[in-house]
Design goal:
By secondary structure, this protein is α/β, with parallel strands linked by helices. It has 15 helices and 12 strands. The chain has 2 domains: about 10-45 and about 290-400, Aspartate Aminotransferase, domain 1 (Alpha-Beta Complex), CATH 3.90.1150; about 60-285, Aspartate Aminotransferase, domain 2, CATH 3.40.640. The radius of gyration is 21 Å and the shape is globular.
Length: about 400
Amino acid sequence: MVRELRISERSKKMIQPAIVKYNGLIKEIAKTGKKVYFLNLGQPDIVTPPAFMDAVRKIDDDVLMYVDPKGIIPLRESIVSYFKNYNLSYDIDEILVTMGGSEAIWYTFLTLCDEGDEIICPDPVYSIYREVAKATGVELIPMETYAEEGFELPAKEAIEKLITDKTRAFLLNTPGNPTGRVYTKREMDDISSLALKHNLFILSDEVYRDFIYDGEEFLSFAAREDVADKVILLESASKRFSACGARVGFLATKNKDVYEGLLKMAQTRLSISYVDQVGAVELFKLEQDYLRSQLDEYERRRNTICEELNKIEGVVLKKPKGAFHLLVKLPIEDSEDFIQFMLNEFTLDGETVLVTPGSDFYFNEELSKNMIRISYVLKEDDLKRAAFLLRKGLEAYKTK
């Protein structure tokens, strides 16, 4: 018998996120000289604070050694101090530094769930959650939300019907990617009440906590005493400090059993980059003025893109309250086909625009077909131009 060489079923189930799968096509387009406005990737264009590289340049170690798998103490101390700005109290031994927020997702799924266990999350949801779930054997159970309702969570009674004996946790992202949704007290009360009643964890991804608009109050599950032992915070330096390439994230939990499980996962990779951690120490020490200036810039960008998109007939969107992403319903039947058209066939004065298809984020394919995600990470003039190209592209697409 000849043994078949094959790869795992879990890897076959995974797909390339749209933020990656268009890379080859983009490189080919670049050769033609066509300019592309990239609204597909949540990569901030704000300058990374110089304090990061200043700290890195001061490293004078003769040997770059392994460091504590929990993260270096100065970084964990810096994170604890940062949390105090939000009236959140953690000890350094309740913080676990990770290789970006993505590693935090992996470790949390692996620590809380065995294969076949379930986590309840909104639909749509951040695309990486879906792929990590496939790889770890976790079943994500979607709560449907709708663009017309600003992606508000369903009523408590509807959510409770999704809970089974395999349910281990709720997974919430606030402010949300891809929706920009900031959860209200009603929504958080409902989730907390169900977590208490059914003894479930709450995974709260708050990497966009510093991007809250219109003077909206940010509510954190970590601030609630009633579910203090059930909350695991997933966090990152990437967005708030425009330091995506540093790959520094972290987890925070007051549940000692959970922390021990997470640490065992972290110990398998020994440690993360000492160099990046040294730089990140200074990021979390930055004055709140830095974060406020970023917030003002992104709020202007949000206002600009929403104003321009509302000029397009048939577009459905609710102005998001946070993050720098928004999901938009277009007056078309197939957003993926439209995106291919914009890249391959459409050009206006040598320019086009790239967005992300809704299918990257939805469990319900019917709901995703005419949805796109826009990341408003460009300057206001570029956002105006990109929205204009989107409008002209839609006009051309409908008549092709």
